[in-house]
Write a structure and sequence with these properties.
The structure holds two protein chains of two kinds. Helix content of chain A is about 80%, strand content about 0%. Chain A is mostly helical. Chain A has one domain (about 20-130): Fumarate reductase/succinate dehydrogenase, transmembrane subunit (3 helical TM bundles of succinate and fumarate reductases, Up-down Bundle), CATH 1.20.1300. Chain A starts with 18 loop residues before the first helix and ends with a helix. Chain B has a six-stranded mixed β-sheet. Chain B is elongated and about 70 Å long. The interface between A and B is large, with 35 and 64 residues.
């Protein structure tokens, strides 16, 4: 039986960050960000229903640099979680476990989620005119 | 960069470790302190520093990091050679496990430069300057680089790693077709039967760090798959019942540090997915 008076060897403090673990923790963090972000989306809808004055207040916040930063984080979280979620679906079906495929799909998720985030912002800023 | 096999070293190093304080979340008795520095002998031209985790249970002191400077001109090529040289010539109190010195026995698994590998199959030339050497992660340390594997062996025993069959014992060996044997050996010799139980994967698995008391971890689950995939074994249903548990099997979140670190190039991540799939197919 392991004796608790012995020191525990270090783990997170020394283990090398790798694409495998970094994308896994990012998946969790973006999931948390999305959970926090969805009540904000509800607030936005409530404000839109409540009338022009309330909406203007909320819009003022969202158009500030802090609001825009939160929206940028939220859109990236959305696209990353979506793409990596699809990667997880393939794994659940038993595909993509070659180390080479794990790395290729991982980098693809990074590239595609950044690309989708940028596209979404370019399109929405363009629509705003 | 794309990693093609587990023996490939990371090409670019942004961070050698996660940006957390060195003693982040560490209990007072596990905190690591600065240790002694053993300089290279005078006249040594090619030297390499090794920062090695030391813990002496009889000293009553905390673990420490000792730094040894090795003369590479009088040292063998592998990390294990350097450890043996330190023990023979510099500091005989350094304690580590080793046996076969050719990657077959799985004794000298340890954390080298932040990932788990066998000291006997890692070239010194492939280590960083300074090379950092720690025991396998998140285990109670018996002494220096020797972790207590009792719990991991108990988890291995839990999956009942022996042949269970309903048939009467045959006169000679239980035969398999080449295809049936390939399920165990793999077409490239890297099937689950090639596991040497060095526990590099399990001790590199974050899920096992946080839930190791109940999650079985990649090494043991790879062995569980080895018996599920065996054509001679008749206890598949019983074995799956034993594994179908929120913690034992399903604490695997497909992080895949296991497949990245396996010094034998095996694929515990895929084996665990195969078990999950087998359970899903049994339900439908």
């Amino acid at each position: 039986m392991a004796r608790d008076d012995r020191p525990l060897s270090p783990d997170l403090q020394i283990y090398r960050p790798q694409l495998t673990s970094v994308l896994s923790i990012t998946h969790r963090l973006t999931g948390i960000a999305l959970s926090i972000g969805s009540p904000l989306l509800v607030c936005w809808l409530i404000a839109a229903a409540a009338g022009p004055a309330t909406y203007a207040t909320l819009h003022g916040f969202l158009a500030s640099w802090l609001g825009l930063l939160l929206l940028l984080g939220w859109t990236f979280s959305f696209f990353f979680h979506l793409c990596n979620g699809i990667r997880h679906l393939f794994w659940d079906a038993g595909y993509g476990f070659d180390l080479q495929t794990i790395y290729a799909s991982g980098w693809a998720v990074v590239a595609i989620s950044i690309g989708l985030t940028l596209s979404a912002w370019v399109i929405s800023v363009g629509m705003k005119g | 960069m794309i990693i093609k096999s587990s023996d490939q070293l990371p090409g670019v190093t942004l961070l050698k470790r996660f940006p957390v304080p060195r003693n982040f979340g560490v209990s007072p008795s596990s905190r690591i302190e600065r240790g002694k520095i053993w300089p290279a002998p005078a006249g040594a031209t090619r030297t390499r520093k090794f920062e090695i985790y030391r813990y002496d249970p009889e000293s009553g002191k905390n673990p420490r990091i000792d730094t040894y400077e090795i003369d590479l001109d009088t040292c063998g090529p592998m990390v294990l050679d350097a450890l043996i040289k330190i023990k023979d010539e510099i500091d005989s109190t350094l304690t580590f496990r080793r046996s076969c010195r050719e990657g077959v026995c799985g004794s000298c698994s340890m954390n080298i430069d932040g990932t788990n590998w066998l000291a006997c199959t890692r070239f010194i030339a492939d280590t960083a300057e300074p090379a950092t050497i720690y025991p396998l992660n998140h285990l109670r340390v018996v002494k220096d680089l020797v972790p207590d594997l009792t719990h991991l062996y108990a988890q291995y025993a839990l999956i009942e790693p022996w042949l269970k069959t309903d048939q009467t014992a045959p006169e000679r060996e239980r035969l398999q077709s080449p295809e049936e044997a390939e399920a165990l050996n793999g077409e490239d010799g890297k099937g689950p039967a090639a596991c040497i139980l060095c526990f590099c994967c399990t001790s590199g698995c974050p899920s096992h760090w946080w839930n190791g008391n109940r999650f079985l971890g990649p090494a043991v689950l790879l062995q569980a798959w080895r018996w599920l995939a065996d054509s001679r074994d008749d206890a598949t249903g019983e074995r799956l019942d034993n594994l179908e548990d929120p913690f034992r099997l399903y604490r695997c979140h497909t992080i895949l540090n296991c497949t990245r670190t396996c010094p034998k190039g095996l694929n515990p991540g895929k084996a665990i997915a195969s078990i999950k799939k087998m359970i899903a197919e049994r339900r439908s």
